[in-house]
Amino acid sequence: MSDLLDRRFIVVIGKGGVGKTTVSAALAVAAAKRGKRVLVAMCNSKERLSHLLEVPPIGEHVVNVLPRIDAVNMTPSAALEEYGLLVLKVRVLYKAIFENRIVSSFLRGVPGLEAWSMLGKAYFHATIPRDDGRPQYDLVILDAPSTGHGLDMLRVPKVIMDVAPPGLLRREAENAWTLFSDAKRSGLVLVTLPEDMPTNETIELHAAITKELKLPVAKIVVNGVYPPLFPAADHSAFAALPAALPAGSPITSLAASSRARVLREAVQATSLARLVAELPVARVELPYLFVPEFRRAAVEALAAAFG
Q1: Residue range 222-252, pLDDT digits in tens
Q2: Contact status, residue 24 vs residue 143, Cβ threshold 8 Å
Q3: In this structure, are residues 182 and 159 in contact, taking their beta carbons and an 8 Å threshold?
Q4: Nearest to residue 143, comparing CAs of 69, 290, 261, 45?
Q5: Is 22:302 a contact under the CB 8 Å cutoff?
Q6: Kind and range of the H or E element at 53?
């Protein structure tokens, strides 16, 4: 697993609701425990990271949340300003260009520019040095939007490279794409659940990333894996038990729960088998944690899988 956390830029992507932010948090905690300085960059999301890590709400500017871990919930407007300042260096020059009424109207009409402002800001944090010459962050984790929007965001640098005239914007897109394409320095982490629909979408996502974008997929993370509760040989018996019980049986509820569990385990086994068969990528399985509330202790428990 060390090769994953040794990268400079990780994109965590997957279907909505599969636990991308949880995985991003666990990766950040694991990297910080190794002594790395980490930035978790969210993309204008309904921010959950602060709840998971038990810290104050995280806004549109970078803040320190835990030792060696910073975070930001990027918004297009704030990201465009910060990215413009990072590129242009001088606030007066930024204001002259980006706050010009005509330029601002033009920028709002450029397809993909809002996505690029956030992706470009995250990229810059992975590359700009501190005053002492060391990288500002050893690892930047981009908690990307859900599958479709995440793919659109990743396509933006290629679009800029294809259509923009030579100049600053195209040069920055080329530099970013060079980083994103380098399997030693960057990688995508595809997050899924051991269920039919997320598995189907992850297989399709992998194809789009590897065949269309030709970006490196570093890991598949299967989140919320249930431990086997019953021997596989007994599954059919448990599945049939509720229908075999007489009316009013005192174990009706227990039988129904057992049936639901074996059916879930069967779906989980099928999903895991498909991921193994169809995606030639190293896989990490994160256990479903039976906790009353999913907070920092649970994140730290999952972080051990990336340690």
Answers
A1: 999 999 998 888 889 989 988 999 999 999 9
A2: yes
A3: no
A4: 45
A5: yes
A6: helix 49-53
Q: Work out whether the CA dihedral 225, 230, 232, 235 comes out positive or negative.
A: negative
Which residue's entry shows tokens 């030709």?
214
CB 171 within 8 A of CB 247: no
The total of other beta-carbon atoms located within 10 Å of residue 6's CB is: 14
Q: Give pLDDT tens digits for 45-100.
A: 899 999 999 999 999 999 999 999 999 999 887 777 666 655 555 444 445 444 54
For the chain, domains (ranges, CATH) are 2-231+280-306 (3.40.50.300)
Distance of alpha carbon 28 from alpha carbon 49, whole angstroms: 11
CA distances from 26 to 32, 91, 162, 209 (A): 10, 36, 36, 23
Q: How many Cβ atoms are within 10 Å of 183's Cβ, its own excluded?
A: 12
Q: Please, what is the end-to-end C-alpha distance for the chain in angstroms?
A: 7
Rounded-to-integer distance, Cα 254 and Cα 182, Å? 52
- Give pTM, 2 decimals: 0.90
